[in-house]
Amino acid sequence: MIFITSKTSDGNMSIFCGDPTTALNNQKKFSKKLGIDYKNIIELKQIHGNRIIKIDQPTVKINRADGLITNRPKLYLMIKAADCHQIGFYDPKNKAIGLIHAGFKGLKKGIIKKVIEKMAKFFKSDPKDLIVKLGPSIGPCCYRMDIWKKAEKQLTDCGVLEKNIGNPRICTYESEDYFSHRRAEDKKENDFRFMTILGL
User: Fold this and answer.
1) Minimal CB count within 10 Å: which of 16, 84, 86, 130?
2) Mean pLDDT within 150-173
């Protein structure tokens, strides 16, 4: 399994922020660096909601949603972020994965519960078996809401074991290694996105 996040040095990864051609080239360079076939990366137009899509094969269609699930090897799920959570779910028993974009709005709309329910429905995943990894996101030091604590509580409320939750607690606002929407606004910088990839 691969769960990895790009950094500011890898460039902007969102075709919806800045120049789309540059972002596309950055995505291709990053995937090549990882040894991943770019055609097998699945991208979303994120909408700060709770829609989850099951993916069975590569597609060029960009769906409007905030989460992806699959049990197909060599399909790579991708989320872009610049303060919001990227949360990866891995079911080692049924060999299935899920990846969601979860900011304050998504958490309020129950996207964590939704993805766990979807994985249970399609892959028979049991929450207690799930390994969950969180990527860099804005911390309580720089945002009025503690989305780290909120996400972790929602995960355990859904039956995920605390010992199976990994949160690096890297604040995107404080760390220059990652893009931050709020830092960009405050400092009048380019409002770019990094990406997180999850795949079997």
Assistant:
1) 16
2) 97
